[in-house]
Design brief:
By secondary structure, the protein is of the alpha/beta class. It is built from 16 helices and 13 strands. Bound molecules: pyridoxal-5'-phosphate (PLP). Pyridoxal-5'-phosphate (PLP) binds at residues 158-160, 163, 184, 186, 228, 232, 257, 259-260, 289, 291, 299.
Length: 466
């Protein structure tokens, strides 16, 4: 630990009256109060979500100001977002890109994107149903249908919107969505869009699903079980076959989000279906993002041909009421799939990096939650300030990993999340593990302080007060 870091830790402790961890009731981190001033353009100033967001942002800024650490949020890379980036004039080893195979800067992918822009322009310039159906969409949809061994697929301009729109279309009042507790926000948004009941399933637990459906399936008309292939928070794999088996017995459909699975799982990177050797029709909808390993932007679904056709013709936000994905984005995915097949060493390097990094972190005694040593690596650092400090201190030493705080994950499981790519080197991974271990010895002495509106309350101003 450097003298500068010792000083920062001292100042953080001073923020708690100089008490050592565990010896005093933690005080909220001082935060500049948010004063609600209603009036023209200020109608939302006392909205609880606005107040909460502003308090949290102010507390983080205050932590940064009081410690002199670099701000870890909204970091701006000056070039490609891969294993190494330049930002703020310096080079960083980066763990915050889900460009797992670094396809986003592959020369063949860039050439394909450029060629598509030259041929079709930079935009589809229309919804698909009205003159926006460029031929590249069909080419990619056939590839995705082959990958998932299903009747058809549909590509869209956003992974988030795909999840929200497809669930919003399929479910409605009287139906239920059974959502894994770690399901992505886009999946939860879909259930809100649908106006159905949402029930939370204990993470990745087929027995819990069985118990839940046994007691409550009869209360609902249609039911959809929503899980992920490769969980983006814990880096564990969805127990698709067991969950689908239970779901089938209770007459439920299944949707699997493949956002972090396509390009990552399976001997050829073709996702969860390939990884587990599953029949494509074991689940009803394979949904996913083209923005992760595929190095592009957009989303997709794959499933039964009639169902996909119905969604294509009737689901708002999929092919209707929204422009088709950009030609360059779709061409990039087509080229990326070719690179995946032609350069299998990328996938091999990604996985050997995952094994090496997880082993190094475990040697230091770190808590990797449910990690299955995949390229998504969580390191649990409970406490918002602790996790925030760890991310900022790591960044100061030249390593960028995101701090994930509640409500994205349950309070008490705050973490640093490392996305690995095929291009991290052994030296990157080992030095990162060593630095993090050193930083965590400081973190142990930082009290677990809350962020958010409670902080404003402690300092005499209830949230929303004018
Ligand atoms: C599991 C999961 N699903 C869906 C999405 C949304 O994908 P996109 O970024 O393409 O909108 C994300 C994005 O982070 C994700 O992690």
């Amino acid at each position: 630990m450097s003298e500068a870091e010792r000083d920062i830790a001292r100042r953080l402790l001073a923020g708690n009256g100089g008490a050592a961890a565990g010896t005093a009731r933690p005080q909220a981190i001082p935060v500049r109060p948010v004063r609600a001033r209603r009036g023209r353009g200020k109608q939302f100033a006392d909205h609880p979500a606005v107040v909460d967001a502003l308090c949290k942002q102010a507390a983080i800024q205050q932590l940064i100001d009081s410690t002199g650490l670099p701000h870890p949020l909204y970091l701006s890379p000056e070039g490609y977002n891969g294993a190494v980036i330049r930002s703020g004039g310096r080079e960083l080893v980066n763990y915050s890109s889900y460009n797992y195979l670094e396809l986003a800067q592959h020369s063949r992918v860039i050439a394909a994107a450029n060629a598509a822009a030259a041929q079709y322009g930079t935009s589809a310039s229309a919804t698909r149903i009205v003159t926006g159906e460029i031929p590249l969409y069909g080419q990619l949809e056939r590839r995705l249908a082959e990958i998932y061994q299903v009747g058809d697929a549909l590509v869209t301009s956003s992974g988030f919107l795909t999840n929200a729109a497809v669930i919003g279309f399929l479910l409605g009042e009287g139906d239920v969505a059974v959502c894994d507790s770690l399901a992505h926000a886009s999946l939860v948004a879909g259930t809100q869009w649908a106006g159905c009941r949402r029930v939370t399933l204990r993470h990745n637990d087929p027995e819990a699903l069985e118990a839940l459906l046994r007691t409550s399936r009869h209360q609902f008309d249609r039911a959809l079980v929503i899980i992920e292939g490769h969980y983006s928070m814990d880096g564990d794999l969805g127990r698709i076959a067991e969950i689908a088996e239970v779901a089938r017995r209770y007459d439920c459909a299944v949707l699997v989000d493949e956002a972090h699975a396509l390009g990552v799982l399976g001997p050829n990177g073709l996702g969860s279906r390939e990884h587990f050797g599953l029949p494509g029709d074991l689940v009803d909808i394979w949904a996913g993002s083209l923005s992760k390993a595929m190095g592009s932007t957009g989303g997709f679904i794959a499933g039964d041909a009639d169902l996909v056709r119905a969604i294509k013709y009737a689901a708002p936000g999929m092919a209707l009421y929204t422009a088709g994905p950009s030609p360059s984005n779709v061409a990039a995915v087509l080229a990326g799939l070719d690179v995946l097949a032609d350069e299998p060493d990328r996938l091999a390097r990604l996985w050997s990096n995952a094994r090496l990094f997880c082993a190094a972190l475990r040697e230091h005694g770190m808590n990797l939650a449910d990690s299955e040593s995949t390229p998504i690596v969580p390191v649990i650092v409970p406490g918002e300030i602790r996790a925030g400090y760890a991310a900022a201190a790591l960044l100061q030493r030249g390593y960028n990993a995101g701090a994930i705080l509640s409500p994205v994950i349950p309070a008490g499981t705050e973490r640093l999340r490392f996305f690995l790519t095929s291009e991290h080197t052994e030296s990157h991974l080992r030095t990162t593990a060593d630095h993090l271990a050193d930083i965590l010895t400081i973190v142990d002495h930082i009290p677990d302080l809350p962020l958010g509106p409670e902080s404003a309350t402690v300092h005499g101003l209830p949230p929303g007060a004018t």
